[in-house]
């Protein structure tokens, strides 16, 4: 896909953040991306109620979500063997973007982590990564979640690249542009000029 | 002499325990999975990135 378009229409997205301002901000961004079904909750109890009532397609969750944090919520969701939300894509938002925090989110089973403050571009790209770069799920005695061994090598399918990238093709040399005699004569001319 | 033997036993038991734990951890099952989000997000009729960002910016400014 050279330039994939993301279709969020009719997907039920659950935004879990204690801040009503942040939730409203994310809601606005998602509406701009074409989403028409967004639920907002303030804590993990709200997440539980929302998931009991309906099937959620994507969870965008703050790492410090009350009562026990977004990472603990992720662990619990991934551990429920009989729950349809076990494989739910989870995007963790955090203001603490230290490597250790990112690793903790990864090991909890989050699909992606996004640093706060959010921008529309960052949010769109994370969602596109989840949508267009599906990863295998891994099930071990100590971990259940997306395969943690992955490497981001640029944007998926070219999303977010600068317009000029990959447009110009470098010419491939099939033969010398000048014959060796011509090259020699050029050097000879320079030398004779110096003399 | 006795002390050395018991120490050796303890080390051997610890090694065996670690190996059992490792064997359990190596019981890995991987499977490909396409979630509803991935399936639906790739449908036709999506919004191009540039337009999506532009629309989001407009809604944010309005708000």
- Tell me the structural class of chain B: mainly alpha
Sheet with most strands of chain B: none
Unreliably modeled segments of chain A = none
Mean pLDDT of chain A: 86
Helicity of chain A, in percent? 25-40%
Quaternary structure classification = heterodimer
From the alpha carbons, calculate the radius of gyration of chain B and give it in angstroms.
Answer: 29 Å
Order of helices and strands of chain B: HEHH
Order of helical and strand elements of chain A: EHEHEHEHEHEEH
Structural class by helix and strand composition of chain A: alpha/beta
Task: Count up the helices of chain A.
Answer: 6
The tally of strands of chain B reads 1
Q: From the alpha-carbon coordinates, what is the Rg of chain A to the nearest angstrom? A: 25 Å
Q: For the terminal residues of chain B, how far apart are their CA atoms?
A: 80 Å
Can you walk me through this structure?
- The complex is a heterodimer of chains A (195) and B (63).
- Chain A has 195 residues and is of the alpha/beta class.
- In chain A, 36% of the residues lie in helices and 14% in strands.
- In chain A, the strands form two sheets. A five-stranded parallel sheet of chain A has the order 2-1-3-4-5, sandwiched between helices.
- In chain A, strand 6 (137-139) and strand 7 form a beta hairpin.
- The model of chain A has no long low-confidence stretch (mean pLDDT 86).
- The model of chain B has no long low-confidence stretch (mean pLDDT 83).
- With 63 residues, chain B is mainly alpha-helical.
- Chain B is 70% helix and 5% strand.
- Strand 6 (137-139) of chain A pairs antiparallel with strand 1 of chain B.
